[in-house]
Amino acid sequence: MRAKIAAGRVARAAALPMRASIVARHDARVLAESVRWLVLSREHTNFTYDLEPRNVEHLTWFVAAVADAPVGEIREYLAELEDDRALREHLERRAVMSPRRGLTDRRVRYGRRAGWYALVRALRPVHVVETGTDKGLGTCVLAAAMIKNEGGRVTTIDTSDAAGSLLGGVYAGVVDRLIGDSVALLPSLDPVDLFIHDSLHTVEHEAAELEAAPMTRGVVALSDNAHVTDVLAGWAARTSRHFLYFQERPRGHWYPGAGIGAAWRR
User: Fold this and answer.
1) Cα dihedral sign for 200, 204, 206, 211?
2) 215-223 and 153-158 as β-strands: parallel, antiparallel, unpaired?
3) Are residues 9 and 77 in the same domain?
4) Range of the domain at 191
5) CA atoms of 256 and 52, how far apart (whole Å)
């Protein structure tokens, strides 16, 4: 009987209660996470969250592939960031002092930015460029990795002079903040070893940044917008590079997550 129903025209209607139950369970979980976030969080953009444990393992293998490094080494770098109490305490203090403290969560959660940290530790770039500073969480993570590497500089670019409110102390010592249009500013910079697009998320602007940045031949280019556009993948194909994508799975958060696109040469 079940086989006949499954093969017949009434199959979809017969399965409706089960299908509705699956959707209801999913929507109830998302609704509960959304309500909790609305009550407990202050954020309105650039959401922060932890990643599911399995997703951290996926991030580990992603970074290992891009950096051509042992997986065990990348695990150590990710653990190093999680255990960095000085960085966490700095970010917590700056969040309380920030002129945007009403829109900044006190709890420090790195999400995919942990992948940025591990890449810097594994690749040991001389010059990292990040477009789109916002509060500066990612900038501080990059700076912490540079400090551990005992060398290198981070350049971060944003159109707002209020950006970078979390930046300060020893982390500011390895960072150059630039205010203005990234496409206009990028050509004047020193050669870039690790480039991170995280500014205006349009196809045109991302493509313009990739063309404007003075990249070294061995540059690793990341796109924080690769879950939305194919710009970096197309650029990788045109320039004979590899491309990989990592998709976040946030833990206990309504947001489905963003991701990291990476383009590189061996």
Assistant:
1) negative
2) unpaired
3) no
4) 41-264
5) 12
